Amino acid sequence: MRDGAPVVGYRAHGPVAVVTMNRPEYRNAQNSAMTYALDDAFARAVDDDAVKVIVLAGAGDHFSAGHDIGTPERDADRSFDRRAVIWWDHVGRAGVDARLARESEVYVGMCRRWREIPKPMVAMVQGACIAGGLMLAWVCDFVVAGDDAFFADPVVRMGIPGVEYFAHPWALNPRAAKELLFTGDRWSADRAQQLGMVNHVVPRAELEEFTLGLAERISAMPALGLALAKKAVNQAEDLQGLRPGIDSVFGLHHAAHAHNAEVAGDSLAGLDVRALRR
């Protein structure tokens, strides 16, 4: 909860669960509280037999501006009940020990768990979908974007090779992934659709109606059939190298953090959200 409102909202729309990030004043930047609340909401939807499809949304004008690297509610120094459990708690540790532990849990670990959710997931994207926002969209099975949506991964400006869940060559293609990373440019929803990252682009005013309609059509399919079809496609992606690719780049990601900390005294090379928008 924050200011009396949940940091992640949950509502049922017939057979569809709508999970909504609720930090609109910070463009839904993802602190750990939000990440763990998302995990709770997804688990609730998986455990509810009435839910056939999950829609992931962002409150306000933006889907997500990425990881929280500077709001007053940044909580990277706090412990939470770990769910991915692939490393120990980061709090009280130093250097790479702390960063690797935390990012293994809240970024790669969480994203992998969410990608394997046995119910179809649809990202409903408006406005900004930047860096860590891409990770949330990419774990979903469909991406529906409003015509005001834009996408970017500008972290090469920090000397970092991409966000932690490095799905770029699979969500796009290798040449497009390089352009997205090498330039740090923002891509329109239309460009993202041309490159296969987005399924549909619709007028912003029609985004929710279209997305819920798509989710309802999907929900007419048998639950087991949907779960098996999703697993089949995910396994094919993994055979194409997605899982080991993420592992290999995660190491490069942390080499970059460590280099920044040693050379610049800060793992993000002294850059903040404002600098990344340039």
Q: What are the salient characteristics of this protein?
A:
six-stranded mixed sheet; 9 strands; 10 helices; three-stranded mixed sheet; alpha/beta; 278 residues; 44% helix
Task: Name the average pLDDT.
Answer: 95
Biggest sheet architecture: 6 strands, mixed
Runs with pLDDT <50, length 5+? none
Helix content: 40-55%
Helix-and-strand structural type: alpha/beta
Question: What is the CA-atom radius of gyration, in angstroms?
Answer: 18 Å
Characterize the overall form: globular
Distance between termini? 32 Å
**Number of helices in the DSSP assignment:** 10
Strand content: 5-15%
Query: Helix and strand string, N-terminal first?
Result: EEHEHEEHEEHHEHEHHHH
Strand order of the largest sheet: 1-2-3-4-6-9
Q: Total strand count, please? A: 9
